[in-house]
Structure formats: C-alpha cells, structure tokens
Amino acid sequence: MVKLILLRHLKSQWNLENRFTGWVDIPIIKKRFKIPQLDFDIVYTSSLIRNIQTVLLIFQKKKEYPIFRHFDGKMKKWGNFNYWTKNKNTHEPYIFVYVTEKLNERYYGKLQGLNKEDTIKKYGKEKVKVWRRSYDVAPPGGESLKDVINRVIPFYKKYPEQDLKKGKNVLIVASHNSLRAIVKYIEGIDDQEIINFELPFNGKRIYNFIKGKYILNSS
C-alpha cells in the first residue's frame, strides 16, 4: 500500500524562545528526541536547516543514507546525480532527499524574530491569531496561508503526488504552514476551518494513497 507521510520538524531554538521564525534559518534545540521509524522511498524537504536536521536524524534509523538533490540555485545542476535513471533495476544503499524553498515555512515578514507574547501585547491577541492562522490575511510584509498554498501546492502536484502515483512511499518533512497547505489540499478543508488545524512538533500525518485517493491512516 502506497503511503504519504507528512512530518513536522523537531522544535527549533526560536520555537523554544516563542519567536516568529518563518524563513530565518534556526537549528533545532540540542536535546534527545524520539525519532519515528518510518518506511519511505523518497523524501521532500525545505531548505531550512531545522527540516534538514530532522531528516538527517530520521536516517540514523535507516540502513540507507540520504543523497540530497536541490531544486534551487547552482546545486540544482551541479549537485545532480542520475544513477537511478541509468540503473533502474539496481538497488543502492541510498534514498534521494529533494530540497526546495517551495516547502519553506510561511514568511512572517516584519514579525520574524519577534517574541510572540510581546507581539500580542503590542497588537492584541485576536489580530495576532488572524496573522498566524487565518487563510488569506498576511502579517505585515509577510505571507498569508493562501500565499503559502499558491507556492506549495503546484510543487506538490508536480512532484510528490506524481511519485505516489508511481507507487513510491513519500515522506515530506516540512514546517507547520507548508504542511497545513498540503493537508488543506488533500482533505479539502474549508478556508475558515483550516484555522483550527494544528500539527505539533515532530507530529506526523499519514495517508494511504489508493487509486488516486487519499485515505487518512490513523496509525
């Protein structure tokens, strides 16, 4: 059975400090984590270090090792490796991990780096909640969830979804709002209801992909 696994990254230092992180590249905190043991054939992740660190920790439990391939910058061409396209029937001890800015967290604009409690005191709880969780209202200078969907979902349809159709188990390690965008697309969640959807740090959501349909797996 083909599976899609969505996994939110481990807690970062700014998550610990209750700051708006967005596209600021902050590492995960230094502590022991319970890393899930997952079965997958291919991985997609963002260019943010907190997501890449989470991927590397997952591979500590795998026999295979990751080869990172990039959709952005010179690494897209210069770091290219096409072994599997030439040797499709040969098993090698590695798994491709595709890296793209398309799966980055929501860009929080002028809020990035600010403490969330201090921001609530300045602007009010309701306004900050709208900036963080609404569908089409963006924080000052940043992205709304609708903006995130507009960059995430075309990429998702073109790459991860096509791998599912080819019978590959796909793991996506990303940030909260890029994963919210994918969940909204898959489950058809209403624009107003998506405000209530949360995925905790290191939280996963698994779907069985059967004949082009997504079925939520409760395991």
**Helicity level:** 25-40%
Given helix and strand content, the structural type is alpha/beta
Q: What is the mean pLDDT?
A: 92
The coarse silhouette is: globular
Gyration radius from CA atoms, angstroms: 18 Å
> Poorly predicted ranges (pLDDT <50, ≥5 residues)?
none
Alpha-carbon distance between the termini? 14 Å
**With helices defined by DSSP (H or I, 4 residues minimum), what is the helix count?**
9
Q: How do the strands of the widest beta sheet line up side by side?
A: 3-4-2-5-1-6-7
Descriptive report:
The protein contains nine helices and seven strands. It has helices spanning 13-16, 49-58, 75-78, 83-86, 116-123, 125-133, 145-158, 160-165, 176-187, and strands at 2-8, 42-45, 65-70, 94-99, 170-174, 204-210, 213-217. It has a seven-stranded mixed beta sheet with strand order 3-4-2-5-1-6-7, with helices on both faces. The relative contact order is 0.23.
Features:
219 residues, alpha/beta, seven-stranded mixed sheet, 9 helices
Summarize the SSE layout with pairings.
Blueprint: E1 2-8, H1 13-16, E2 42-45, H2 49-58, E3 65-70, H3 75-78, H4 83-86, E4 94-99, H5 116-123, H6 125-133, H7 145-158, H8 160-165, E5 170-174, H9 176-187, E6 204-210, E7 213-217
Parallel strand pairs: 1-5, 2-4, 2-5, 3-4
Antiparallel strand pairs: 1-6, 6-7
Report a brief summary of the structure:
The protein is of the alpha/beta class and 219 residues long.
